[in-house]
Design brief:
- By secondary structure, the protein is mostly helical.
- It has a domain at 34-82.
- It contains 3 helices and no strands.
- The chain has helices at residues 8-15, 19-48, 53-81.
């Protein structure tokens, strides 16, 4: 017997209405990853000492921007699937 795979339209119909849940899940995961990333990097910058201050600040800004981008994309995709 040949297995039938759902069409793209069927897959999208199955996802319809689940967009907000998907967006919230991805957003929450991005936040947790951001927090963990900043915590680990903070430990490293603490070991290096005050000389790492400017690099640490730039790192934190970039890491925050990446995480915020992930949350924004998740919201956009979630809205499209809703």
């Amino acid at each position: 017997m040949t297995e039938q795979f759902p069409t793209t339209a069927e897959q999208l119909a199955e996802l319809a209405g689940r967009g907000s849940a998907i967006a919230e899940s991805v957003s929450a995961a991005a936040t947790l990853i951001e927090w963990q990333h900043l915590a680990v990097a903070g430990e490293v910058f603490d070991v290096i000492g005050p000389i790492a201050g400017p690099v640490a600040r730039m790192h934190d800004v970039i890491a925050g921007a990446v995480a915020e981008s992930m949350r924004g994309i998740a919201a956009a995709v979630g809205g499209a699937l809703a």
